[in-house]
Write a structure and sequence with these properties.
Layout: E1 11-16, H1 17-31, E2 36-40, H2 42-46, H3 50-59, E3 64-67, H4 70-78, E4 84-87, H5 95-101, E5 105-108, H6 111-124, E6 128-133, H7 147-155, E7 160-166, H8 179-196, E8 203-205, H9 209-213, E9 223-224, E10 252-264, E11 269-270, E12 276-277, E13 282-287, E14 304-307, E15 310-313, E16 323-326, E17 338-345, E18 348-350, H10 352-359, H11 363-368, E19 375-379
Parallel strand pairs: 1-19, 2-3, 2-9, 3-4, 4-5, 5-6, 6-7, 7-8
Antiparallel strand pairs: 1-10, 10-13, 10-17, 11-12, 13-16, 14-15, 17-18
Bound molecules: pyridoxal-5'-phosphate.
């Protein structure tokens, strides 16, 4: 039985533009017309392909995109993206000049950044709008300077301009800790004090996916920054959270082709290290994908795929380019047939959160772990 397939690749992901757009629109509906939705497309859009995803979001009206590095921002500009682009993950010395040349909006994370941005802006003879990140309790990037010191630094600007204040939550899906509430209070206090000192930038933003899904409208302000939700995921709430309001679904399916099928007797050791031993006469399929494609090695002897409409366990260790599964109970399958690593076949499905749980990691890590050599196929 040959399955129809959109790709002849050994391993590919199929990404639904329609689902990406539906997820983006679900976020827009949730936050309402007064809040801008900045699509976070950093890290190759969590494995979905940065440029393609950015194009979908722009086609659906996105005025803002967010990336981590100026190199990512420059790649979006090279591909013709026109939206405002926020660069979130910290700039190094040569980066402000690139940000100016590529019309990117960098985030400043310290008073030193503010001075460096101004210097670069003066040197280029061009404006440099930027946003300033406040560390409200996550203790990663963001300034811990006092409002007075921040206001003083901003008042000294000669060319660069602060257009936004932001922060980032550490625990927005965790309702067993007051950390998010405290971070919001801290942001309110800091921005209130700054406003009194004359610092009233146009944009205020705090929320990524979890603070959108587990509705904290007070934290939405002028822009929200969803990444995970655009790709169809919301982390499960810890503790007594409200239900997630976001109607999103995964936009990506991950497939691998069978490269060989064989029958082995009971008591056959399988794969590197002989870590699996068949208990019965077993039909196995060797998949043309391994950890070099992003299948977590921790799925060895623990994970499963969907093969011929049935779950099929992974047998033995995941190798670099190959993974063995047990298809004794599956329909007849042949080399060239696709199996599903992530996605839906009939009534069965496996999503990145499930794969992550078995692999001892998080869904973000599974999605970002899908390697560049895995072909990306876009469907409408
Ligand atoms: C990655 C990131 C986001 C998006 O987070 P999700 O949980 O994927 O929605 C938002 N803001 C910042 C600062 C980030 O680094």
């Amino acid at each position: 039985m040959t399955r129809s397939t959109p790709s002849s690749a050994r391993c590919y992901v199929e990404i639904s533009r329609r689902q990406l757009a539906a997820n983006y629109n679900a976020v827009r509906r949730t936050v309402g017309p007064d809040v801008d939705v900045m699509g976070v497309v950093k890290a190759e859009a969590y494995g979905h392909g940065m440029v393609e995803v950015a194009r979908v979001l722009e086609a659906h009206g996105a005025r803002w995109l967010a990336v981590s590095t100026v190199a990512e921002g420059a790649a979006l500009r090279a591909a013709g993206l026109k939206a405002e682009i926020l660069v979130m993950a910290g700039l190094l010395a040569p980066d402000p000049a690139v940000a100016i040349a590529q019309r990117l909006t960098p985030v400043a994370h310290s008073l030193e950044d503010i001075a460096a941005f101004d210097k670069a802006s003066l040197a280029a003879g061009q404006p440099l709008p930027f946003h300033l990140k406040l560390d409200t309790g996550m203790a990663r990037l963001g300034t811990r300077a006092t409002p007075a010191a921040i206001a003083h630094a901003l008042a000294g600007l000669r060319s660069a301009r602060c257009e936004g204040l932001l922060t980032h939550f550490a625990s927005a899906s965790d309702f067993t800790t007051p950390q998010t509430t405290l971070q919001i209070e801290c942001f309110d206090e800091l921005t209130g004090a700054l406003a009194e000192l004359g610092v009233r930038p146009k944009y205020l933003h705090l929320s990524s996916t979890n603070a959108i899904a587990y509705a904290r409208p007070h934290a939405w302000r002028t822009i929200v920054r969803p990444g995970h939700a655009i790709y169809g995921y919301v982390s499960p709430a810890k503790g007594n959270g409200p239900p997630s309001d976001l109607a999103v679904a995964p936009a990506l399916s991950w497939k691998a082709k069978i490269v060989a099928v064989k029958d082995v007797p009971a008591n056959t050791l399988v794969g590197y290290g002989g870590t699996a031993c068949t208990r019965r006469a077993t039909r196995m399929a060797i998949l043309g994908a391994g950890y070099a494609d992003g299948i977590p090695h921790r799925l060895s002897n623990r994970g499963r795929v969907i093969a011929g409409g049935k779950f099929a366990p992974i047998l033995g260790t995941v190798s670099m380019d190959l993974t063995t599964i047990d298809i004794t109970d599956s329909a007849k399958l042949s080399p060239g047939d696709d199996v599903t690593l992530l996605g839906t076949e009939g009534r069965l499905s496996i999503n990145a959160q499930e794969m992550a749980r078995v692999a001892g990691t998080i869904s973000y890590n599974v999605l970002c772990g899908i390697k560049p050599r895995v072909e990306r196929v876009y469907i409408d």
